[in-house]
Amino acid sequence: MSAQMTPVRTGGEPHLDVRGLSVRFGGLSALDDVSLQVRKGEVVGLIGPNGAGKTTLFNAVCGLVRPSAGTITVDGDPLPGDPTRLSARGVARTLQGLGLFRGLTVRENVLAGHLGATDPGADAQRQLDALDLAAHADRPVGDLPYPEQKKVALARALVAQPGLLLLDEPAGGLGAEDIATLGELVRHTAGTGCAVLLVEHHVDFVMSVCDRVVVLDFGRVIASGTPDEVAGDPAVDEAYLGIEVTTR
Ligand SMILES: Nc1ncnc2c1ncn2[C@@H]1O[C@H](COP(=O)(O)OP(=O)(O)OP(=O)(O)O)[C@@H](O)[C@H]1O
């Protein structure tokens, strides 16, 4: 399916609505006229080769890079240019690395995702319970095995019950069993009405967990559709999977 034929899912207006987004770094066009939408309850995967522009798109949504063109709205309103105000707008993000405060406990790390809340302790406890982290709550986060630390990063993103969750390579470094658990968590989160956009290199995970997939290459959307549609797109095979396609 071509980028121009992006299907519009039923189920309401887009929660995240990116339109005509372009980002330039000097002479380099990192994103070129990119549009994508994520509705509440929907999981959208953003894939593409290294350097395709995935992280730049996340950074633009978070106000960390300034677009040269285009608009980004959440629930119909532009996002604040100040990244520190994203949480108040219901936007949460996990990072490619864990981005945890290694000197702090699990609970303190989760609380860090909820600064300014009226009852952060109760919300943090709820999130710790939900992700089976309560038994580790008062341990230094660095003492936990890597998959558990990934869960802490997710708990920190979810503690404020965001309306939009941006997941940056959530499956990275996880084994098959933990990836399956992560998939359930992501689907459960979307089931609560959260709009989820995830960047991921683990294609099987993306194809199993996402409602729709958007493929970037050299900063442009080259394909978009359901996992099956995208998996069967020759342009994706050629650009992303490195398979040379001779017939179109
Ligand atoms: N701050 C920056 N200054 C200059 N160029 C940048 C900057 N950030 C990203 N780029 C360039 O923009 C392009 C897109 O990079 P980006 O990190 O968004 O790609 P990506 O798809 O996330 O790649 P990866 O899968 O390797 O994380 C690349 O060519 C990259 O080198």
From TrEMBL:
Residues 16-243 form the ABC transporter domain. It holds the Pfam family BCA_ABC_TP_C. The keyword Transport applies. GO terms for cellular component: plasma membrane. PROSITE patterns: ABC_TRANSPORTER_2 (PS50893). CDD domains: ABC_Mj1267_LivG_branched (cd03219). The keyword Disulfide bond does not apply. Keywords: ATP-binding, Nucleotide-binding, Transport. InterPro entries: AAA+_ATPase (IPR003593), ABC_AA/LPS_Transport (IPR051120), ABC_transporter-like_ATP-bd (IPR003439), BCA_ABC_TP_C (IPR032823), P-loop_NTPase (IPR027417). GO terms for molecular function: ATP binding; ATP hydrolysis activity. SUPFAM superfamilies: P-loop containing nucleoside triphosphate hydrolases (SSF52540). SMART domains: AAA. This is ABC transporter ATP-binding protein.
